[in-house]
Amino acid sequence: MAKRFIPDWTEKAPEPYSYRSIFKWGDPHTFKHPNPKLYDELKQIFNLDDSYFDKKKNEGREVVGYKKPVKLTGTQLKALAEIAGYDNISTKEYDRLKYSTGKTLEEALKLRKGVVERVSDCVIHPRSVEDIQKIVAYCNKYKIPIYVYGGGSSVNFGLRPSKGGVTLVLSTHMNKILALNETNQTVTVQAGILGPALEEALNNAKKLFGTKYNYTCGHFPQSFEYSSIGGWIVTLGSGQASSYYGDAYDLVISMKWVTPVGTFTTKDYAATATGPKVNDIMKGSEGTFGVLVEVTWKIYRYMPENRRRFGFIFKTFEDAVNASREISQGEFGMPAVFRISDEEETHIGLKLYGIDGTILDKIMQMRGYKPMQRCLFIGSAEGEKHFTRNIKKQVKKICKKYGGMYITGLPTRMWEPGRYKDPYIREDLNDYGILIDTLETSVKWDNIHNVHKAVRQFIKNRPQTVCMTHASHFYPQGTNLYFIYIMKTDDIDEYIKFQDGIIDTIAKSGGSLSHHHGVGRMIAPWLEEHIGKEQMAVLRAIKKHFDPHNIMNPGGQLALDLKDKNWRNIK
Amino acid sequence: MAKRFIPDWTEKAPEPYSYRSIFKWGDPHTFKHPNPKLYDELKQIFNLDDSYFDKKKNEGREVVGYKKPVKLTGTQLKALAEIAGYDNISTKEYDRLKYSTGKTLEEALKLRKGVVERVSDCVIHPRSVEDIQKIVAYCNKYKIPIYVYGGGSSVNFGLRPSKGGVTLVLSTHMNKILALNETNQTVTVQAGILGPALEEALNNAKKLFGTKYNYTCGHFPQSFEYSSIGGWIVTLGSGQASSYYGDAYDLVISMKWVTPVGTFTTKDYAATATGPKVNDIMKGSEGTFGVLVEVTWKIYRYMPENRRRFGFIFKTFEDAVNASREISQGEFGMPAVFRISDEEETHIGLKLYGIDGTILDKIMQMRGYKPMQRCLFIGSAEGEKHFTRNIKKQVKKICKKYGGMYITGLPTRMWEPGRYKDPYIREDLNDYGILIDTLETSVKWDNIHNVHKAVRQFIKNRPQTVCMTHASHFYPQGTNLYFIYIMKTDDIDEYIKFQDGIIDTIAKSGGSLSHHHGVGRMIAPWLEEHIGKEQMAVLRAIKKHFDPHNIMNPGGQLALDLKDKNWRNIK
Predict the structure, then answer these.
(1) I need a labelling partner for B89 at 20 to 30 A (CA). Which of A478, B131, B255, B268 fits?
(2) Which residues 346-385 of A have a C-beta within 8 angstroms of B?
(3) Inter-chain residue contact A253 with B477, CB threshold 8 Å
(4) Would the pTM count as exceeding 0.95?
(5) ipTM value of the model?
(6) Which residues of A, range 240-269, sit inside 8 Å of B by Cβ?
(7) How close are the terminal C-alpha atoms of chain A, in Å?
(8) In this predicted model, what pLDDT tens digit does every residue of B205-252 receive, in sequence order?
(9) Record: contact B276-A283, CB cut-off 8 A
């Protein structure tokens, strides 16, 4: 038997100061390669043989080099350096590009070719609220744009410095835990703290803070390791356990904001009836109203010993949706991880999780759960132990009613270790010209199939294109749909046009423009039609109040100053 | 044994067109009298004998009569009548006063003496969204103020027509159920529907709408029978089962608003990440941004068969608070009704519920639960049956840990039938010059005792004054405190000053200005200092956007146009 060919997936950290070091996901030394089953699937879909994978292209290993003059004056740079300290300001080409770049596929593809579009003029790493207050006041006076970089994981150009100016990096110094209040079950942190630092401290609260219990932050987006709490809030993120813990929106108790018209802290009551909640008005503002500097966040007891996992296979997506809806409306508490995959994602997922071809797969097939029809449901319950036991019991009962076969907690266990690793796969695929990207939407139960079918149809109308879909954030009133598409093209414009077509299809079929990725610049052209001009006018009025000179994340973000939908051309 | 004296508590419906018909709570033919135990307690506290209760005073049985000219022109009245129909507009003195009056004690006391302060110039009962759009456009053009009357239960002058103009009554015609969507578990209604009509329809959904399940609206404020869904939302109300179902804020999926700058409907997704949520910005706007005309509201399965009740007695308020906090943070789901009373409320509550003096009382005393120290906890769980069983089990376990004695579900059962009836008692007490009123606040767990003690101290510093306190809306991060005070005075100004002192004490001790009564005009003078000028400026910017001519509920509401804190003098 011939030795199996395996492509030379990159195991080499990006070169220092290279483009690749900017667009590569996550840790420079961490990789996740397509497993052999997925590799075979890709070859088949794109009609390729092993020889295609002999040679990588556009690896972006060159050192960053571009010619974009710094437009701030020496006086301005000096003034900013005096505020934040000379060690904390940079106008180096590499730094300017690094902190002007998010994690969209488009940015990665362009940087692979050395194409640099917008960069800020200087990067500042503020040390304190006072630094930020002074910087905002200074920039407001001289009308210098400000962008905020937290973890840098934006997938919609949310931090693109469309008009140049200053990028503030919050994760460098503004990443401390300020207080853990066990009585109120809250943690107060600086907005630049990333997921792991927060979660590790909370998980070890007894030791670190002398608390009675250990805690969890309850928010685990796929970007968890490389996103900040501030980013979670201003983009309205949602974690993989949101069905139980709530979305970022729900988890915020209070915040401190620095805006061009002043600094304020919202009250940290669990609930009040003192007029429209400014605390909530600020959420989702995506850098356009001001800089979020501190957050008081709900925490939950960390009780992994009570976690109960479960997995089911359904004969159809419709069955899986019906069961999910009944669970979501069942009033026995919600699962934490709660995820159903459609036919195509199940097909590939069973390969990824190593279930394809096993005895379990054979049993499923024998019992009528057929490939490209069957749908996977994985989940877990968290909370008090009798509470989680009852959730598992009720979930089982409901899934059985809809023809679901119990396949143990194994698939959830297989999924868990990779939950933050999947974004690493993009690097490998892109090395061979295969594109993978995602778009997502919020749907009402009575429209889920309509949106799912319309978007799938649009994507599948393109020959040789994978479309995997799952729903992973559940509410009694609806859920989300998360589309992952894989295509092979060297034409970035074709890819962009295709992506636009998907967004268009989501909007036209009645999905929300975003469930948890935010709007940024990428989705902005659809926003006004989606929410209506009356509501856009409200957002613009608030924007005008906070930021009369439009210095906060200007240039298309949230469509606030988007004139002709062509945000890529804004200068 | 001499026959016990019982005061001649009123059993007579108010005379037609009398002041009393306006200030009397609820149904004209329904009454709730102080029971003999409470009567005895009041005599003792105020050092009165039966003879004091021989004669009522200031009953307000006179026909309404006052001299306040209608300031709208004939042309304006004609134009408004042409819009809404001549049958739906009134400039009668009685109607103008009736729909200009809320349910504050101050209003009741003044009307008892025939003192009429602010009235609108005309009352309109719009029939449709179109009527309202035309009225708002017309009033905006001619700068005529608009106030909205739903159920009329405001306890903070929220509907006081400070500057005259038009009062729109939404509960007359705009009270229909427009759609029940069982798939999405939502109901869409006109904003003027009152609690009972909504709840009865939902409880009978199978029969009325052919649904699979019956439903509940989940929101049961004490004003339930005489408040509208629109009112619940714009004042940020909270129901007696909010710990499980959520506050009004949480229950709204989407809304339709008519404002001076246009009409819009927010999207009805369960969650989105498309920028700041205009849907949430409108909540709590208390009539100052526009008119809420339609609501899509979450509904829950109606499963009274799964309800489990429980009651406990604790040795101290501190024990009751500690147990409540542990329950709220226990992650096994929340009780629906969840209520702890402090020493003094427990003392009077046990009398009201008929437990005082019974064998149960004796057992409690024997076991060390002493009067004026012991504290009552009543509650119930709702939801799926294993879920409610587990909540009861966990609640029992935690209460036992804090020295609570289980006293069965009886006190909850005693409390339930009176839950909407207590406001009727005011009429009787006021007839004899005894005042009863309430103020409430939101507190964090780490500050509950501080606020409780400070407010109690302030109230109890006044001789012969009852102060009963309970917490009845629970969150992992805190709860509310609801103060009921009873005093005897004929001096309205003294009462107002005393009330101001309580609000002041709440604010200074760190409570929120309101947990669920809203701000209205009464609390407005404290708002700017409470939330800060930066946040007030945000609210004013939004106000200016929606209502450039300040026609929507002008004159002190939410402190938006409050200059010198003296809202009573605004004309």
Answers:
(1) B255
(2) 382-384
(3) yes
(4) yes
(5) 0.97
(6) 247, 249, 253, 259, 261-269
(7) 59
(8) 999 999 999 999 999 999 999 999 999 999 999 999 999 999 999 999
(9) yes
